[in-house]
């Protein structure tokens, strides 16, 4: 029998009525002839409650106990959904991670999948069960204790099951009805995409599209699992939502498919840094050690007067999440105090935002950057930093122009048109 | 190292502060040199919440899913207590039933212990852990799924662990500070007992003393596990609470050690029943089939005129819980309609209560019944039914005299004096 993986997040299973709604969506797929593996999150709010208790009990908690406590939320949902399915006549049972068993690495609270053996669940399908409801976000470590997978763990569980069971598709139900060309709250012209390539989704997710966790998209890309994002709260058919799939399954892609943004950026400039081999490592190693996530990096010759510096000098600019600015500053100051790096001044700009255009079509089309820069220039938006990849162009601009920039770029690439 | 089992119920672990209080009690025993196995219930209210969800989802629920959902409450407490212990420097870890593994029978929601293998927990003690925090009320069935033990399951888990690990003692922490000679709300002269025999505790528990579940006392008696009942909310020392133990460890027992009562009784009399061999079976078999818990039974020759009945006739009186009266009546009427039994009239008295005096000393002392009956007669309390066992005398009386009867008996046997 063909098999489908369906995943429902916390808001989709927030109470008994919503669980009933989920059960009907599962039933419909069973009626269509699928065996179904459903991955569930904890009821909305439950994980936060449990995490709160753990953190209040023990600020430097033992991650093994954290996992034992926090995983209970998903177990409750799995049992309740199995009961709800039984109640409407669908043969279902719940599975906790250790029962499958979902084998993971030993890093508690941040475990990764090692193996998902099919035997136990396959046997139940063979016995006539049509639905396996699996508690997401958890597994069994080599120490025989419960592990959890960290952020995005439930999406990732769904993709891992889809890969292990050769699922026809992995449907991720969420509170939006798909992936949009940009945030509809910023541009009313935002349009839902019917298909998007894994690579594009990765750029959009990590840039803040927040629909799918990066990690689950990476896993889907690696195992070529077709992902579909769709709404828990609407009636769906086979064409609903957005399909995230391999590039070669998208017949005609536009050059640009989305405009992403990130509001919480900060720009740090080290003024008058010695320009020598190894200077980048000297700067970015202490930042990495301090856990600072450096995003864009630009090295440029300053136009200021360098007469005090006889050797070659440069300015180094990079962006970090705004809540890591203090950590980054401290790391730089300590490195300077330890004579590992030298600079005249450290300038922080916390009034910046990042805007990016993303599209696999860029690989084969030139002129995208020029078109983007012109769109911004037409609105008199000054670009502070530029970074590009194969399928993405990102710019750092004044935060107050962020919405305007998103709208201008969305218009410039005519994203409102399918 | 000597080993102690400690058990904390739902009110004792109702919030993080109370869990901290529990941790300190455990720490004290560790400091005294014990390895400790702690059995915990779910935080007060949590089990009811989970049961409510299950029942609302599926009135005729699949007990396997019920168990999977409901057991999560204990798992949360176990993790939180382990973290709290670690936080105050006590090497502790949590254990879910399947990790021990606590092997039970397959009756989901009403499972019984099959085996508690020591190897896993013993190994952790050998590695330097001092405390094993075990989620109570749950186990692992032969089907590889979670089972729960039904009412009183956490007390029973504690006793079973004490037996399996040869514990020096099993301390049951609860919201009262011990077992009393009677209910202190009824007699201000009620006195806490320092020691009580298993048999007496069984009679007191089943008669409504509600401190320990009958099943756990039975198990303790079978394996000769010393049980101590004491308060979670007081400072305790070695002599606190009440020790429930084998008769031969109680040097000098009084003749009577407690006065128990049960308010929710009803008396049913079948008037003019044929007095022949097999008549008792004919009456009580249909009651048992209907799930009626018959308690006291008296068969007596009525003083009324039996001239309509040429054969030998009798009256049959029995007591049942008041909420089973309708069920009992229906069973009797159906048996009569089916010509399995014959009686002239069925009289129900729902205004009765049961009062009992309990004491292992009765075995070797006569005159206890006479003393009890005199005490009630002195208060003009009419006795409706009498039933006796080796260590107990119970009477059924008008409910309005219940408190008076308890006080009179407590006085008559001088239970206020140690």
Secondary structure elements and pairings:
2 copies of one chain form a homodimer.
Chain A: E1 3-8, H1 16-31, E2 35-40, H2 46-57, H3 63-70, H4 72-87, E3 92-95, E4 103-104, E5 113-115, H5 119-126, E6 131-135, E7 138-140, E8 146-148, H6 153-164, E9 169-174, E10 195-197, H7 198-209, H8 214-223, E11 227-231, E12 242-245, E13 258-274, H9 279-289, E14 297-300, E15 313-321, H10 325-337, E16 345-358, H11 368-378, E17 383-389, E18 392-398, H12 402-412
Parallel strand pairs in A: 1-2, 1-9, 2-6, 3-6, 9-11, 10-12
Antiparallel strand pairs in A: 4-5, 7-8, 11-12, 13-15, 13-16, 14-15, 16-18, 17-18
Helix pairs in contact in A: 1-4, 2-3, 6-8, 7-8, 9-10, 11-12
Could you explain how this protein is built, in words?
2 copies of one chain form a homodimer. By secondary structure, chain A is α/β, with parallel strands linked by helices. The first copy, chain A, is built from 12 helices and 18 strands. Chain A has helices at residues 16-31, 46-57, 63-70, 72-87, 119-126, 153-164, 198-209, 214-223, 279-289, 325-337, 368-378, 402-412, and strands at residues 3-8, 35-40, 92-95, 103-104, 113-115, 131-135, 138-140, 146-148, 169-174, 195-197, 227-231, 242-245, 258-274, 297-300, 313-321, 345-358, 383-389, 392-398. In chain A, the strands form 4 sheets. An 8-stranded mixed sheet of chain A has the order 3-6-2-1-9-11-12-10, with helices on both faces. A 6-stranded antiparallel sheet of chain A has the order 14-15-13-16-18-17. In chain A, strands 4-5 form a two-stranded antiparallel sheet. In chain A, helix 11 crosses helix 12 (402-412). The longest helix of chain A is centred in the first third of the chain and has 16 residues, at 16-31. Chain A is globular. The interface between A and B is medium-sized, with 35 and 35 residues.
